[in-house]
Design brief:
Shape of chain B: globular
Shape of chain A: globular
Oligomer: heterodimer
Order of helices and strands of chain A: EEEEEEEEEEE
Number of helices of chain B: 0
Distance between the termini of chain A: 35 Å
Number of strands of chain B: 11
Radius of gyration of chain B: 14 Å
Strand content of chain B: over 45%
Helix content of chain A: under 10%
Number of helices of chain A: 0
Distance between the termini of chain B: 40 Å
Structural class of chain B: mainly beta
Structural class of chain A: mainly beta
Number of strands of chain A: 11
Largest interface: A-B, 24 and 23 residues
Radius of gyration of chain A: 13 Å
Largest sheet of chain A: 7 strands, mixed
Largest sheet of chain B: 7 strands, mixed
């Protein structure tokens, strides 16, 4: 199985901050990397697919980059509604499709 | 608007079975693959199973292979997860998820998620 390691596992930030989350794959996954946002009590939400393509309706302050084994999710200017847990997910090698362990983003 | 509504969760004893159902609306059901993804208490997301748009292809996580069966009814627009030989490790919130890609593709993009059905396995 492909292991995805996110860093950091938790992060404290303030509204307006620029935030970057990293996802590292244990082997090459081309650009088959997606990002999700998950808030307590809500369904997870697709943010970015294929490494950098923004899902419809997702604010442009979210962006993704990377290919191969190293990927990043960037929030250019953090908004109050962005505090959540973020997951990366790969599907280049399946089954199974795998998730990172998550990055919890909370208020500083 | 795509809606996925899970049902069938509950509290069951170890070794027993449970069947989850995902009712869908707002989507051309027969064009898309569907997944089940779970989240154990305090843990991250774990993919469980996928079924192709036509029901002919299924894949499972190793942790559930041989115990869980995913199926679909294209006439009722529903997806099911039959869970057998349940153990404490299966305690989780189970999400039904629609793939973004039409027809069959191994590029799994989990586009639309339900609110989840809670399964608790306890004696």
């Amino acid at each position: 199985d492909v292991q995805l390691t996110q860093s950091p596992s938790s992060l404290s930030a303030s509204v307006g901050d620029r935030v970057t989350i990293t996802c590292r794959a244990s082997q090459n996954i081309n650009n088959y990397l997606n990002w999700y946002q998950h808030k307590p009590g809500e369904a997870p939400k697709l943010l970015i697919y294929a490494s950098f393509t923004l899902q419809n309706g997702v604010p442009s302050r979210f962006s993704g980059s990377g290919s191969g084994t190293d990927f990043t999710l960037t929030i250019s200017s953090l908004q109050p509604e962005d505090f959540a847990t973020y997951y990366c997910q790969q599907s280049f090698v399946f089954p199974p499709t795998t998730f990172g362990q998550g990055t919890k983003l909370d208020v500083k | 608007q795509v809606q996925l509504v899970e049902s069938g969760g509950g509290v069951v004893q170890p070794g027993t079975s449970l069947r989850l159902t995902c009712a869908t609306s707002g989507v051309t059901f027969r064009h898309y693959g569907f997944h089940w993804v779970r989240q154990a208490p305090g843990k991250g997301l774990e993919w469980v199973a996928v079924i192709s748009f036509d029901g002919k292809t299924e894949h499972y996580a190793e942790s559930v292979k041989g115990r869980f069966i995913i199926s679909r009814d294209n006439s009722l627009n529903t997806v099911h997860l039959q869970m057998n030989s349940l153990g404490a490790e299966d305690t989780a919130l189970y999400y039904c998820v629609k793939d973004r890609i039409q027809l069959w593709s191994p590029i799994f993009v989990l586009e639309n998620w339900g609110q989840g059905a809670l399964v608790t396995v306890s004696s």
